[in-house]
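Hey, I was hoping to borrow your eyes for a little while. There's a protein on my desk that I can't quite get my head around. The fold is given in discrete form, as structure tokens running alongside the sequence. I'd be grateful if you could look everything over and explain what you see. Here's the protein in full, and shout if anything looks odd to you:
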Amino acid sequence: MPLSEYTGQSPLGNEDATVVRVVPHRLWQPGQTRTEACTNCGEELVLSEEHLLVVLEERGTRTRRYFSEESCIRAWLGEEKQD
């Protein structure tokens, strides 16, 4: 599915939040290595390596969520079960 089709959906159990944008992402910060956990599966992501970025809006506030792959986004939205 094209990543743009996730726009407008809400995460499982949080109908107050809406996906604004989903894009492939790499965060380049020379001399620094930043990591974040995948929002769905908890896998540690090195943000300078390719991953997926979801911009989520909830009650007027936008936040960034990081995912290791598209199947994690689908599971987070309740579209499929995670293995």
